[in-house]
């Protein structure tokens, strides 16, 4: 009886350890956002700031401070670990920094972010798929992706597949990292320019806060045109 109890306890401990090992990135991201939201609430309450006041303050730090672009790029690099949408933060770059600097900052941040997420996927995806296994649908496609790493990642970028999903899958399948980052840098160009231009079309911060949207037709047309061109190019490559 005691032997069975001991085995059950060991099994319970192993399950708990396995659960924590698999879920710690999610728990860490949740703790980060709780800290951010709690800190924001405490700061605004202590200084008597409204939501619009705090948004203006944050935008002022990012656009008028020497450390603003550095903070933005750092947040972009850490973004996949924090489960923050890539599209949203890319649009924000165009809105805050304009088309030229917005594109530059996004290119730096997004490619660094992609490489970080790739190695995270490679670390946690190690041995998930046996590279020596030649049977099964997943194994066959994994082999094709490894044999045609650059073309596969480039196609997925041009198709606007979920950004982080591509990172983690590429890392988990142990795709060559040099081909991955080169395909990411090239394939992300249409999307980067498109969403940054979309951000530049929204007018000023005060207009947005007051609900007055000043959309630039030229920026919208250019943005949609790049998306269509990217999808057409992916169809051709496919």
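-> sequence recovered:
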């Amino acid at each position: 009886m005691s032997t069975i109890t001991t085995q059950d306890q060991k099994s319970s401990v192993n399950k708990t350890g396995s659960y924590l090992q698999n879920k710690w990135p999610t728990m860490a991201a949740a703790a980060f956002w709780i800290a951010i939201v709690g800190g924001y609430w405490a700061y605004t309450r202590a200084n008597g700031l409204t939501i619009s006041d705090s948004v203006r303050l944050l935008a002022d730090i990012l656009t008028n401070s020497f450390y603003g672009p550095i903070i933005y790029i750092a947040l972009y690099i850490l973004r996949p670990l924090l489960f923050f949408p890539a599209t949203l933060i890319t649009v924000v770059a165009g809105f805050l920094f304009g088309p030229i600097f917005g594109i530059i900052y996004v290119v730096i941040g997004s490619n660094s972010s992609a490489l970080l997420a790739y190695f995270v996927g490679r670390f946690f995806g190690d041995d998930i798929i046996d590279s020596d296994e030649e049977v099964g649908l997943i194994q066959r496609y994994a082999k094709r992706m490894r044999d045609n790493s650059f073309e596969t990642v480039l196609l997925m970028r041009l198709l606007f597949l979920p950004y982080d999903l591509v990172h983690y899958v590429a890392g988990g399948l142990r795709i060559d990292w040099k081909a991955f980052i080169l395909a990411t840098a090239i394939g992300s160009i249409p999307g980067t320019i498109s969403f940054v231009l979309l951000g530049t079309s929204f007018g000023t911060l005060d207009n947005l806060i007051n609900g007055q949207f000043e959309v630039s037709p030229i920026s919208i047309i250019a943005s949609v045109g790049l998306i269509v061109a990217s999808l057409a190019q992916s169809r051709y490559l496919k």
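Residues 2-47 form the longest helix (46 residues).
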